[in-house]
Write a structure and sequence with these properties.
- The protein has helices spanning about 10-15, 115-125, 130-135, 170-180, 185-195, and strands at about 1-10, 20-30, 40-50, 55-60, 65-70, 75-80, 105-110, 110-115, 135-155, 160-170, 200-205.
- By secondary structure, it is of the alpha+beta class.
- The N and C termini lie close together (about 10 Å).
């Protein structure tokens, strides 16, 4: 079981003020190292909260420190830095300490998945911890383990008579219930480790 803390998007925007809105932008990610620049380039879409309407492109650089380059439609470029680079330089724009563009986050419908950087940015922009608590909701997700190349058996009259043409899946609750009947503690732990080491998906508990 895993637990996720989410914020209600409409509540956050109301607290931030009318000028803020959520944007979904295609982002170019670049992993930097000391030898080669611009390696492992991947494009995907991220969600952000902003009070700007003229964003053209976003590039995120990840390495020993993080940088975010925001390109505007008028040609202006704004570079945001992580807090671990030149920390004494108060003139540098920061990813979590600015008043116009939030760190990225995941979103589903009206729910925003909380993360550490987003929390810091929201607090910097005047939202209190009490307000964040009031705007949040915790979801519990239960894992289902997928056993690839093992097909779900068809059982009739207590015997295996074939298999379905889809992979076997077991929920965490099903595994725990079956393991409870194994008296040998060492064997129970070993089987548990094996069964829960496979790929898993999550569903609302």
């Amino acid at each position: 079981m895993v637990y996720y803390r989410c914020y209600k998007a409409d509540s956050l925007l109301k607290m931030l003020g009318d000028s803020f809105h959520i944007v979904n932008k295609n982002v170019q990610h670049k992993l930097l190292d000391w030898v080669n620049r611009d390696v492992n380039v991947v494009d995907n879409a991220n969600f952000y909260i902003t009070n700007m309407d003229n964003i053209k492109e976003i590039v995120e650089y990840n390495g020993l420190w993080n940088e975010k380059l925001i390109k505007l439609t008028d040609g202006t470029e704004l570079k945001l830095h992580s807090s671990n680079i030149n920390s004494n330089d108060s003139e540098m724009l920061r990813i979590v300490n600015n008043t116009f563009f939030s760190p990225s986050f995941k979103r589903q419908e009206n729910y925003i998945l909380a993360n550490k950087d987003l929390d810091s940015w929201l607090l910097f922009n005047g939202i209190t911890e009490k307000q964040l608590e009031d705007a949040s909701e915790t979801f519990s997700l239960s894992p289902t383990f997928v056993y690839k190349d093992v097909y779900e058996p068809v059982i009739k009259n207590g015997q295996v008579c074939g298999s379905y043409h889809h992979y076997l899946r077991l929920t965490e609750d099903e595994i725990d219930k079956a393991l409870a009947d194994i008296i040998d503690v060492e064997m129970r732990v070993k089987i548990c480790m094996i069964l829960k080491s496979f790929e898993k998906t999550y569903r609302r508990a």
